[in-house]
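Retro notes (design track)

What went well: tokenization of the new backbones is finally stable.
What didn't: we kept losing track of which sequence belonged to which structure.
Fix going forward: every design gets posted as structure first, then sequence, in one message. First example under the new rule, 280 residues:
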């Protein structure tokens, strides 16, 4: 682990794995520590240096003195400070889920600094993307033969109708992974200890996203973009991910069969191959 100073002097931590061209990785959650990435399916062993940032207030990073600094757009400066600290002129940038929103906003603010952008099962608020209830339910119905499906689907209907309780949120957990096995359940259980709940609640606060302005800037983005979707992902259904790809001029979308919201857990080999084929 190493550290650097954010623009407001908050000390932030990052983790480096492997050798090769750096790939800066931004966690989702929102505001979950980098630890949940694990080894990103073994990506570091394939010639990529994984540089994982603990966002402010998560993992080994200090909390921001001002809670408003947790808002997604206000963390763009943290990513730029990391780039400067690493001495990189241009970066390869990966964001997962809510972290993909931060990666998108960074790219919009610093388009000349990003050569390749990888958005893994991404949130789409930054570019004005919409995920409908039917997108989620249609994706969920692909799992109808799973033994846990009836209770999980009923809970998902409650979620999409805006009447979810904590019990409903727990019941939809099997939809987060392509296989609801012991490893997936352990990954889910660890999340409660890795996420800064207060910071997560402020991440997408009012004003965080200005989709029209972001899309206008991204229209001139000259770097390449890869959007990875999971076939079974109800959080970022493939249809919504493919639609958001239209915001990036040089974009390709890959749907990973049998994968959920954490594709490096569900199919390490396919995930690493997709990212490596894109990065070269």
């Amino acid at each position: 682990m190493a550290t650097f100073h954010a623009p407001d002097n908050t000390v932030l931590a990052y983790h480096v794995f492997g050798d090769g061209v750096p790939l800066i990785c931004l966690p989702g959650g929102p505001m979950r520590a980098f630890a949940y990435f694990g080894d990103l399916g073994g990506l570091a062993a394939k010639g990529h240096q994984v540089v994982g940032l603990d966002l402010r207030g998560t993992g080994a990073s200090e909390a921001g003195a001002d809670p408003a600094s947790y808002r997604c757009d206000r963390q763009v400066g943290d990513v730029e400070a990391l780039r400067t600290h690493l001495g990189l002129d241009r970066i390869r940038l990966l964001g997962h889920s809510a972290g993909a929103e931060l990666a998108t906003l960074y790219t919009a603010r610093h388009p000349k600094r990003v050569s390749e952008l990888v958005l893994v099962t991404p949130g789409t608020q930054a570019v004005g993307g919409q995920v409908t209830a039917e997108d989620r339910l249609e994706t969920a119905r692909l799992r109808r033969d799973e033994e846990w499906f009836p209770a999980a689907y009923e809970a998902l209907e409650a979620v999409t109708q805006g009447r979810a309780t904590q019990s409903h949120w727990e019941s939809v957990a099997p939809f987060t992974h392509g296989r609801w096995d012991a490893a997936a359940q352990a990954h889910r259980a660890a999340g409660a200890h890795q996420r800064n709940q207060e910071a997560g609640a402020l991440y997408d606060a009012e004003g965080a996203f200005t989709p029209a302005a972001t899309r206008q800037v991204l229209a001139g983005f000259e770097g390449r973009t890869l959007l990875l979707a999971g076939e079974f992902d109800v959080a970022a259904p493939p249809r919504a991910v493919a639609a958001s790809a239209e915001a990036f001029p040089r974009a390709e979308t890959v749907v990973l069969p049998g994968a959920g919201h954490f594709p490096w857990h569900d199919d390490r080999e396919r995930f690493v191959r997709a990212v490596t084929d894109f990065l070269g």
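Added context from the reviewer: Strands lie at 2-5, 11-17, 21-26, 48-54, 91-96, 114-120, 224-230, 251-256.
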